[in-house]
Design goal:
mainly alpha; 3 helices; 82% helix; ribosomal protein; structural constituent of ribosome; RNA-binding
Amino acid sequence: MPNIKSAKKRVNVIKTKTLRNKMIKSNLKTVIKTADAAVANNADNKQDAIKFAIKKVDQACAKGIYHKNKAARKKSQLMKQLNG
């Protein structure tokens, strides 16, 4: 446990940021799985599901949770699934 006041604060800030990042990552994984299922089942809303998943990937990239190259790779994979 840290003794210095600023170090104690950093522990709390890191804990908060970790929870926020975990929440966003979990939601993103759920959205991507939903999009995958929509494409696999050839559902009527597969276009919308992919579009929403790409939007969420972009948001995660903007918040610094995904690296820009990983976001680009994910978006590319999603579009490949839709068009393939």
